[in-house]
Amino acid sequence: MDTNKAEKESVETTTVNTTPNSDSSTMKPDSEKDVEAGPDNRALGADEKDPNIVEWDGPDDPENPMNWPDGKKWINISIVSIITIVTPLGSSMFAPGIPSIMEEFHSTSSTVATFLLSIYILGFAFGPLLVAPLSEIIGRQPLYVFGNIIFVLFTVGAALANSIGMLMAFRLLMGLAGSIPITIGSGTIADIMPLEKRGRAMSVWSLGPLLGPCIGPIAGGYLIQAAGWRWVYWLMVILAGIFIPVSIIFLKETFAPVLLERKTQKLRKETGNLNLQSKLSERLSPVDQFKVAIVRPVKLLVLTPIVTLMSLYVAISYGILYLLITTFSFVFTDQYGFSEGDNGLTFLPAGIGFIVGVIGFGQIVDWMVKRNQAKGIEHKPELRLVPGLTIPCGLTLPIGLFIYGWTTQYAVHWIVPMIGVLIFSAGLMGVLFCIQNYLVDTYLRYAASVTAAMTVLRSLLGALLPLGGLEMYNTLGLGWGNSLLGFISLALIPIPVVFYIFGERIRGRFNIKL
């Protein structure tokens, strides 16, 4: 009788542990399961290990980037964050000097003038499609170093340009090289920061792509007025050039599969055992790995509704930001009488709004994760999309646009539209922050690819929307033109709410092979 009872309990226990609805299989993101499950250990018993599989030396292995000291982690994050501010400077730092550039090259086309600004963002759109897969094969650190060197060389070419065509070509190439930190920065943070600290680190890094285009014209306006537009590029050569030796000396590789592969190669040489394999190895040749990885961002963007709709939300919001930036030069110069130098100061409210967003939302999100951990609530990516945070952030976008549009329409004192821009920018930071963290949590191992997918769509709209935006303002006026944008941003608010409610179910249904 006791034997039968024991057998029955054994069968029941096995059934519970292998059910597909078990918490251990559904609560953990697919990316984390990929990282933790070695390909050769799947067929072994729980207490068996393949002696040819190389993994970390226990949970406290100091070589594991997750176990690095906080100081080492923040040195890497700080360098990456500063580089991520420097490269977006090129998108708009010379914007106040566009009239003088057009005059120097004898062009009067408003379309050419707008495209001269936005072609840089096209580089941000297409660069990630190559950068993300490379980072998941050769690692993060080499791309930061060589990308920075190439960026400096292309910036020198832009400074020496003798025609609009030459200037456009080098600006496109600058955007391609400058997309590297924007694409893989989130991957670096996911490599080294635990869940409860990731929010603050992500907020510092994500400030760069937004703050760079806003603070650039502040310095650029006065620099162009004093020394000419070419000095904008020479200044960027100096700033980016400083970080070449800094990144070589202080930036460390953080991508776990690459680090384990290096450890495996070292052990093969030391032991002579050619059968050793990294636990995280995909067992593909570098060429085959690249073929798989290069289509990953597109697969994420096209085949997963989560990435598609979330990227669309961020892309439209980002495009509206760039559309606002293109209006500053004529709204505050023609309507409020700002000089070419003072016009750069009109970008300051957007920068202040982004800083407010970083300080506020980074702390709030990390606090929410720690609170849930203290209560014993298992973390799910959807917790990043709490409606109490995403809805207020979403509402600030149309509110800011309505204030900016109608106060400039009726020439209300310039401080009021600037307040509208500040409100819009703080809300945009919150929206971007919640969505970025949600997507990284969902596809942790492929953080660079999911960021690339979002960056492609975001940059395309950021580059192309301003081309037709000025005609929209000419037709509708500043009031109704910005109101139209406000209504569009208002219609996007339900997207994160839907994924907060149904996200886990959707992730299970669209679990594509990456």
Characterise the protein shown here:
- This protein has 514 residues and is mainly alpha-helical.
- It has one domain: MFS general substrate transporter like domains (Growth Hormone, Chain: A, Up-down Bundle), CATH 1.20.1250.
- The protein is built from 20 helices and two strands.
- The chain has a two-stranded parallel sheet.
- Helix 9 packs antiparallel against helix 16 and helix 17 runs antiparallel to helix 18 (415-442).
Sequence-ordered SSE layout with sheet pairings:
Blueprint: H1 2-18, H2 23-26, H3 30-36, E1 53-54, H4 70-92, H5 98-104, H6 110-138, H7 141-159, H8 164-192, H9 195-227, H10 230-250, H11 256-271, E2 277-278, H12 286-294, H13 296-303, H14 305-335, H15 340-343, H16 348-374, H17 387-409, H18 415-442, H19 447-491, H20 494-509
Parallel strand pairs: 1-2
